[in-house]
UniProtKB/TrEMBL annotation:
Matching InterPro entries: GntR_C, TF_FadR/GntR_C, Tscrpt_reg_HTH_GntR, WH-like_DNA-bd_sf, WH_DNA-bd_sf
Domain HTH gntR-type: 14-81
SMART domains per record: FCD (SM00895), HTH_GNTR (SM00345)
Membrane-spanning intervals of the chain: none
Protein's UniProt name: GntR family transcriptional regulator
Length: 230
């Protein structure tokens, strides 16, 4: 009897909704759509080549994530970054970062560590060139690589649900040269802990690293008044 072949796996491509949501999310994170400003729906429709219907579905999804505020008959506004929001999100994110470091040191492979060292060296070069945009990009890849090495899907889901809000706060707050040097040194400590498989040490460094980011954003909030969201 001829065996029945299993059905071919279906590889789902990203939908228009997902692509649109991610594109607008990135504009919010990098500050192209600034905190407290109204979302320019007409311009976004032209930019992405879409109608109002898929755009507004994407805006609803971003509002659910806390990045936008939707007001009846007034459109969508980019949520302001507040001290209350920071005080709520950063401690939780710090605990998740710390746990990801502990678990990563238990499960990470030598090949993954070598890849992270390569990323780190690349990040340091961007630091030396004072290329902040590319520095942030590689920096994010390193943190995601640590999360992947933790081998815990529940942790990954919770982490990524908050990561956008943390990234957004980091992007808008201008780092001083002193803080940038400190952050780069902290990443070297992160690498050393990974190479030694020092989970406890990495947990402490990652938590401290995020606390220092929070201090930078707090300083920015003190010196910058955001436009009203209404």
């Amino acid at each position: 009897m001829t065996p029945t072949l299993a059905a071919q796996p279906v590889f789902r491509r990203k939908s228009l909704h997902e692509d649109l949501t991610e594109g607008i999310r990135e504009q919010i994170v990098n500050g192209s759509l600034a905190p407290g400003t109204k979302v320019p729906e007409k311009e976004l429709c032209l930019h992405y080549g879409v109608s109002r219907t898929p755009l507004r579905e994407a805006l609803k999804a971003l509002a659910t994530d806390g990045l936008l505020t939707l007001e009846p008959n007034r459109g969508a506004w980019v949520s302001k970054i507040t001290q209350e929001d920071l005080d709520e999100v950063f401690p939780v994110m710090g605990a998740l970062e710390a746990l990801s470091g502990e678990l990563a040191c238990k499960h990470i492979t030598a090949a993954e560590v070598r890849k992270m060292r390569t990323l780190h060296n690349k990040m340091v070069k961007y630091y030396e060139q004072r290329d902040l945009a590319n520095y942030f990009d590689v920096n994010q890849h390193i943190h995601e690589a640590i999360l992947d090495a933790a081998r815990n899907e529940t942790l990954s889901t919770q982490y990524r649900s908050l990561a956008t809000r943390v990234r957004r706060a980091r992007y808008v707050a201008n780092m001083t040269q002193e803080r940038w040097a400190q952050a780069t040194d902290e990443h070297e400590q992160i690498m050393q802990c990974l190479e030694k498989r020092d989970g406890q040490g990495l947990s402490v460094v990652l938590k401290t690293h995020l606390e220092n980011k929070l201090a930078t954003v707090r300083d920015w909030l003190k010196d910058n008044d955001q436009p009203p969201a209404a």
